[in-house]
Amino acid sequence: MGAYILRRLLLVIPTLLGIMVVNFTLVQFVPGGPIEQIIAQIEGQGDVFAGFAGGGDAGASAEPGGGVFDDKYVGARGLPPEFIAELEKEFGFDKPPLARFLSMMGNYLTLDFGESYFRSISVIDLVLEKMPVSISLGLWSTLIAYLVSIPLGIRKAVRDGSRFDTWTSGTIIVAYAIPGFLFAILLLVLFAGGSYWQIFPLRGLTSDNWDSLSLLGKIADYFWHIALPIFALTISAFATLTLLTKNSFLDEIKKQYVMTARAKGLSEGRVLYGHVFRNAMLIVIAGFPAVFIGVFFGGSIIIETIFSLDGLGRLGFEAAVARDYPVIFGTLFIFGLMGLVVGIISDLMYVLVDPRIDFEKREG
Q1: Do 305 and 233 meet the contact criterion of CB atoms below 8 Å apart?
Q2: Which of 182, 185, 230 is nearest to 205 (CA)?
Q3: Could you give the residue ranges of the DSSP H alpha helices within the chain?
Q4: Nearest Cα to 2, choosing from 356, 304, 347, 354?
Q5: Are 253 and 282 in the same domain?
């Protein structure tokens, strides 16, 4: 197993490099880069560099993360080519794409992910700032989905074809068919001060008086705020997991070793949880890291927006819209690396659930 893990770890390097190369190359063909964004902002505000001819420092006001440009710019006069060149130099766009890519990857090897073009904060600090929201949504929605889906899927498998199986399947299909954003809006209307009850807060992860609350008060306040977003994010997620659990159990129940165990006089509970459970739950439990990482990275952008939660989903979307390349590529590198590592963890989970699995023998 050690040799297999080592090979997988070594494959992380070329895989991650390939991800970065492909995305960096594609970005070069996307119109509306950071320079164009800033120029459009300046011209839209009606401010153009009025003092450029008088010896003003163009680079100083074009500093990444510097925010709004000062009153030296007057849009009606147009932007001098010297200013555009200085702006490109400030952002590093005076170099060819290959040189910029190699410089970027060299910085990433030292865990230097740069600073956001449009915010005075490093990419790492920005990710850490948004992390609590995404961890809350990803972790709790995944745990709740598993805690609901596994018992429900097992019960549906045991009572396959019964009235219980029929009506729960109908409920699951309806829940899966409802778009997450529509269900989130429904929750807001009903329970967050829309047209009915003001039970849950409308936005944020904590209340304004968070620091003054006791420990129990902080815990209650935290769950009070995330209740609706988690419910909206989980309602459709557990459908696939429930049906997967049911089908896995049905496949195992029909196998010969189950019939043999029953013939030996073992109780139904012993057969299900002593023999069937480990084999049926292999794909479900081992897939937990991948499910969590999927929800953690990309499954919550709409929910974050609706409930005014500032997490990684909104960060990635806003960075893509603003062409904030350090944030885009920095988070891509971090999350790509984490995703590849989680893939290895998923394989280890398979071995943990069923020690009979040997990836080295299967590769051989």
Answers
A1: no
A2: 230
A3: 2-27, 34-45, 58-61, 81-91, 97-109, 123-158, 163-177, 180-191, 215-234, 237-253, 256-263, 268-271, 277-280, 282-286, 288-298, 301-306, 312-322, 325-353, 359-363
A4: 347
A5: yes
The series of mean pLDDT values per 10 residues for the chain, 364 residues long, is 78 90 85 74 49 39 40 45 75 83 89 84 88 83 85 88 89 82 84 76 79 86 87 79 85 83 81 78 70 64 82 83 86 85 78 66 54
Q: Residue 167: inside a domain, yes or no?
A: yes
> Is the Cβ–Cβ distance between 59 and 80 less than 8 Å?
no
What SS3 string covers 316-354? HHHHHHHCCHHHHHHHHHHHHHHHHHHHHHHHHHHHHHC
Q: Which value, to the nearest 10 degrees, does the dihedral of the CA atoms of residues 89, 90, 92, 93 take?
A: -50
Its domain, for residue 348, covers 124-363
Q: What pLDDT was estimated at residue 253? A: 83
> Residue 233 is part of a domain; what is its CATH number?
1.10.3720.10
Q: Based on the domain organization, do 46 and 149 belong to the same domain?
A: no
SS3 state of residue 280: helix
Its pTM stands at 0.70
Give me the number of domains the chain comprises.
Answer: 2
Domain endpoint, select from 54, 87, 112? 112
What pLDDT score does 72 carry?
35
Same-domain check for residues 131 and 58: no
3-state secondary structure of 179: coil
